[in-house]
UniProtKB/TrEMBL annotation:
Source organism: Nitrospira tepida
Cellular component terms (Gene Ontology): cell envelope
Name this polypeptide is given: Cytochrome C
Annotated PANTHER family: DISSIMILATORY SULFITE REDUCTASE SIRA
Record bears the keyword Iron: yes
UniProt keyword Transport present: yes
Domain NapC/NirT cytochrome c N-terminal, residue spans: 11-91
Recorded GO MF terms: metal ion binding
Length: 234
């Protein structure tokens, strides 16, 4: 015997499913939901103290396209839940999340347009060391290399790292070998986060790597205004 359902009953079921789905989506978009996983807890705590504490997790980790939502949220989120419940969760110092550059540039696209040569345009603390470099040129170089590099190649710990050397915010490590104020990351030396913290500009500017037919120099003047580093040069 076939059951007959009134249009109103069908509409109520559909509306309920949509409401539940929307409510669930809203819940899983909240940073507090992410923090409910013990593996993510350290990342949540560092985010809450960072310069990005008003930006939610999904704003940086989930692309707004249909493919991005399916891959970054539905698939990755479900996989993480299954691993947490039935597998062996990754320890916090070995977390290696993907952050796509288009998400960074959705808020910071002006960095590709502003002058990064005039000292007056330099924001603190890079003004202190006269650091001048073009984000646009670096993004173009990363695209040409085709190794999946982008904003987080240099800014990987800007949200989840700790400020160093008295700076008020997290800044990329310029160099480790030539740093007069060394800083040792508080992570196991064989961990993902330790390697990310110790990776610096010399990974490319090593005096050997070439770009557009020219060797990437290790000289201070390549990235710094000479008058800012003259005490170190002589």
């Amino acid at each position: 015997m076939r059951h007959k359902y009134s249009p109103w009953a069908v509409l109520a079921i559909v509306a309920g499913a949509v409401a539940l789905g929307g409510g669930g989506l809203h819940l899983t978009n909240q940073p507090e939901f992410c923090a409910s996983c013990h593996t993510i807890a350290p990342s949540y705590e560092s985010w809450a103290k960072s310069s990005h504490k008003e930006v939610s997790c999904v704003d940086c980790h989930v692309r707004s396209t249909p493919e991005g939502w399916l891959r970054d949220k539905a698939y990755a989120g479900t996989k993480d839940v299954l691993i947490t419940w039935f597998g062996t969760p990754t320890v916090p110092h070995d977390l290696d999340a993907t952050v796509h550059s288009e998400l960074c540039l959705s808020c910071h696209r002006e960095i590709l347009r502003v002058s990064e040569v005039a000292p007056r345009d330099l924001p603190p603390p890079v003004k202190e060391v006269g650091l001048v470099m073009s984000h646009r040129k670096h993004m173009e170089a990363f695209a040409k290399r085709g190794k999946g590099e982008g904003c987080v190649t240099c800014h990987s710990r800007v949200v989840h790292g700790e400020p160093i050397k008295g700076y008020p915010i997290v800044v990329p490590r310029g160099h480790v070998e030539a740093d007069s104020k060394p800083h040792e990351p508080r992570h196991p030396k064989d961990s993902v986060l330790y390697r990310k913290a110790m990776a610096d500009c010399f990974r490319c500017h090593d005096g050997k790597t070439e770009h557009d037919g020219a060797v990437l120099s290790r000289k201070c003047e390549t990235c710094h205004l000479p008058e800012k580093v003259q005490d170190l040069l002589f």
